[in-house]
């Protein structure tokens, strides 16, 4: 019985503390404002042209692309001609949707 009382008292105390924090933030106007998401301006992103980039550039500029995947991209381009869309990168062995999504803003096919 003492454990139940102690647990109930502890829960009540924690509820009051968290409510106080929420009420304090609401009076300051902070609760209504969502957190700002910082995004890098598109102008500052160095673009990687899939049709001209060499292994070293692909490897250094793209996330999740090591030497083997960079070589696979170049080999695919040499075998199939220039990329016609960024999504065509999914046809390269070892490149999946997650890797493409991580790098999509950096990729171009000019």
Automatic annotation (TrEMBL):
| Protein name per Swiss-Prot or TrEMBL | Competence protein ComEA
PANTHER family reported for this sequence: ENDONUCLEASE/EXONUCLEASE/PHOSPHATASE FAMILY DOMAIN-CONTAINING PROTEIN 1 (PTHR21180), ENDONUCLEASE_EXONUCLEASE_PHOSPHATASE FAMILY DOMAIN-CONTAINING PROTEIN 1 (PTHR21180:SF32)
Superkingdom classification of source: Bacteria
Question: Which ranges carry the Helix-hairpin-helix DNA-binding motif class domain?
Answer: 56-76, 87-106
SUPFAM superfamilies, alphabetized: RuvA domain 2-like
Q: Which GO terms describe its biological process?
A: DNA repair; protein secretion by the type II secretion system
One MF annotation (Gene Ontology) recorded for this entry: DNA binding
State the organism named in the record: Pseudomonas jinjuensis
Q: Which UniProt keywords apply?
A: Signal
